[in-house]
Amino acid sequence: MTRADAPVTPPVVLTIAGSDSGGGAGIQADLKTIEACGGFGTSAITSITAQNTTGVQSQHLLPIEEIEAQIEAVTEDFDVAAVKTGMLATSEVIELVVDHAAELSNLVVDPVMVAASGDRLLAAEAEDAYRSLIAEATVVTPNADEAAVLTDRDIDDPEAAERAGRDLVEMGADSALVKGGHVPGDAVVDTLVTDDDVTTFRHDRIDTEATHGSGCTLSSAIATRLAQDDDLPTAVGSGIDLLASAVRYNLDVGEGPGAVHHLVQTRNDAARRSTIEAVERAVSAFVDADVSVLVPDRGMTVAGATPYAETPDSVAAVEGRIARTMDGVRPNRGVRFGASTAVARALLAAREYDPEIRFAVDCRLTGAVEDALASLDGAVASYDPGERPDAVSDDATARWGVDRAFGTSEETPVAVVGREGVGVSGCVLLLAATADDLISRVETVHGAVDEA
């Protein structure tokens, strides 16, 4: 039988940039990100670089007529919905893009000047030429160093970034996103400036040097979201969220600092089904073993996080918890994402210290259970809920407690004990990297309690 085809029509995004033989930045990063964000990536390569995670060894600029031929080949055949530029290298290439700007919609200009390794990727004479390209941009996305070159300002705080953004808009850009990664501070503040508004995006700084490809990834994500008709703040916010995860869960490849994880959200989404199945497997094991003695009066929550979970909606748990019955234990309902609150927050708090942790279960705290924790192969940490600051709500107690326990433990604990305080029930949170490890730890504690 001949099957009917089922074509799909993703928006086409064109990247005009250099090739990175190391795969972390440039055209390679752009195409990965465009695909991950739901677009179809096309390219016009401006320059070929020999580089890896330690630096740029050499670069070769393609003939200008070959660069133009690539742009024309793409635009003549495809309905290009957005364009992003990266490494343009010389004023001649920049002027070529300007000449084609009238036919390029949703133009995102990433003014690449220096690689993350510190190697220069733009001829000094080309800096002035960028101003004509900026005038054609839907959004220009310089980091603080690039914005300083373009605007002749020192950018050392968000207020200076806003002023630089206004300068770039005055040059003709519809908007400017001045990135805060190179600005000192515990938080990274990215500043989006338009004629009418200023929007700031704030997220915690990640303690890593593996930021290779970050600018390429962000600009490609923004271009792809614009190609899908997102409004500008939504497109920028979505790109920044992607990059924050891509930097935290970076790719440890090569001898130098690694690259950002361009497909982090795609991989995370792909793991949702297997995460639910792992939680269901743990629930079945606990039902079969009848772990009634470990089930708190309010019920037991079994939770599992996707590999790159950052929020509770990426944590799967038993809806309504596991309850004790006359015949043993049973789950009240099925497993779904977002079903847990306190345990999900506690699990995410543990992942801040050790991202390998993906599974957790809360157990009742009795003297026998606490004694049984000594049978576990790993550290046991504790906190006193009675010491909880007034500013921490009841709902946030578990997360505060995990922070407190991990902060005082010399190694990743396999169990966190919250001893009973005034008005607060005690609990034990068992943690594991895999569902099988979690099942084993529950079985170990359960067996030790039975033997006591």
Automatic annotation (TrEMBL):
<feature type="domain" description="Thiamine-phosphate synthase ThiN">
    <location>
        <begin position="279"/>
        <end position="443"/>
    </location>
</feature>
<dbReference type="InterPro" id="IPR013749">
    <property type="entry name" value="PM/HMP-P_kinase-1"/>
</dbReference>
<dbReference type="GO" id="GO:0009228">
    <property type="term" value="P:thiamine biosynthetic process"/>
</dbReference>
<dbReference type="GO" id="GO:0008972">
    <property type="term" value="F:phosphomethylpyrimidine kinase activity"/>
</dbReference>
<dbReference type="InterPro" id="IPR019293">
    <property type="entry name" value="ThiN"/>
</dbReference>
<dbReference type="GO" id="GO:0005829">
    <property type="term" value="C:cytosol"/>
</dbReference>
<feature type="domain" description="Pyridoxamine kinase/Phosphomethylpyrimidine kinase">
    <location>
        <begin position="20"/>
        <end position="261"/>
    </location>
</feature>
<keyword id="KW-0418">Kinase</keyword>
<keyword id="KW-0547">Nucleotide-binding</keyword>
<dbReference type="InterPro" id="IPR004399">
    <property type="entry name" value="HMP/HMP-P_kinase_dom"/>
</dbReference>
<keyword id="KW-0808">Transferase</keyword>
<dbReference type="Pfam" id="PF10120">
    <property type="entry name" value="ThiN"/>
</dbReference>
<protein>
    <submittedName>
        <fullName>Bifunctional hydroxymethylpyrimidine kinase/phosphomethylpyrimidine kinase</fullName>
        <ecNumber>2.7.1.49</ecNumber>
        <ecNumber>2.7.4.7</ecNumber>
    </submittedName>
</protein>
<dbReference type="InterPro" id="IPR036409">
    <property type="entry name" value="Aldolase_II/adducin_N_sf"/>
</dbReference>
<dbReference type="GO" id="GO:0008902">
    <property type="term" value="F:hydroxymethylpyrimidine kinase activity"/>
</dbReference>
<keyword id="KW-0067">ATP-binding</keyword>
<dbReference type="Pfam" id="PF08543">
    <property type="entry name" value="Phos_pyr_kin"/>
</dbReference>
<dbReference type="GO" id="GO:0005524">
    <property type="term" value="F:ATP binding"/>
</dbReference>
<dbReference type="InterPro" id="IPR029056">
    <property type="entry name" value="Ribokinase-like"/>
</dbReference>
